Amino acid sequence: MASLVATDLDGTLLDRDGKVSARTRRALDELDRRGIPVVFVTGRPIRWMDDLWEAVGGHGLAICSNGGIVYDVATHTVKRARVIEPDTALKVADIIRRAVPGSTFALEKTGGFAREERFGGRHVEPLGIPIGPLERIVDHTVVKLLALHDEIAPETYWRRVDELVQHLVTTTWSSTFSLVEMGGKGVTKASTLEGLAAELGVGPEDVIAFGDMPNDIPMLHWAGTSYAMADAHPAARAAATDQAPPHDQDGVAQVLEQVFDLPRP
């Protein structure tokens, strides 16, 4: 039986409103009571996690920004950050800008968010964020470089960006719009989860993982048992060993109840 659960959030653990349902909360609480850690492994930055930390459980660990950060929930501190060096971020942006005009950029950092003037994200921004040329806002705390295009289809844009800069960074895509997420070379949900699991004395054969989008694929491949949601991206379903019910039908909870013989509603 698995001794560690790793799960993506949006489109996977959370319902359509981005919440942890009552059924899912019961399953997580029961696993926590049994001493089985549940690690949230998400593309979300830390700043989008405030209303979800209580669901992590007693162990208090999460992986954010597609593997860029290991976060200690109990102390609200970054335990480990896998950063992109400023020179690399600037070089990557220059390559993309030249090859795909219209690309704009933003940065997720260990301490917040910053963006170029023309970067038009789809989420409410924190007040007072740094806005300006990439050369001015980049620093040594960047864990994710974001590239956005308003006129190219999401998967087309991701594949083009990956062709251009995969030798410098790790690219992925988890949005419904044309936003490419880039971490340091070799930084994925899987590589950071592997390190965290090793610290807990757990190997891939003891991990059960859940996901739904291309940024989950390395984790779904790495884990000994992996589930893609029934409504997941086709590439994620192909990467997983098994399939879970849709995320909005408490798919993760349904699988956990079966695997760990948890009480059912």
Number of helices: 9
User: Strand portion, in percent?
Assistant: 15-25%
Taken from the alpha-carbon principal axes, the silhouette is globular
**CATH structural architecture of the largest domain:** 3-Layer(aba) Sandwich
Topology order in helix (H) and strand (E) letters: EHHEEEEHEEHEHEEHEHEHEH
CA gyration radius, whole angstroms: 18 Å
Number of domains: 2
**Please, what is the average pLDDT?**
93
**What is the class of the largest domain in the CATH system?**
Alpha Beta
The CATH superfamily name of the largest domain is HAD superfamily/HAD-like
Q: Sheet with the most strands? A: 8 strands, mixed
Query: Which topology of the largest domain does CATH recognise?
Result: Rossmann fold
Helix-and-strand structural type: alpha/beta
Unreliable parts? none
Spatial gap, N to C terminus: 22 Å
**β-strand number:** 13
The helix content, as a percent range, equals 25-40%
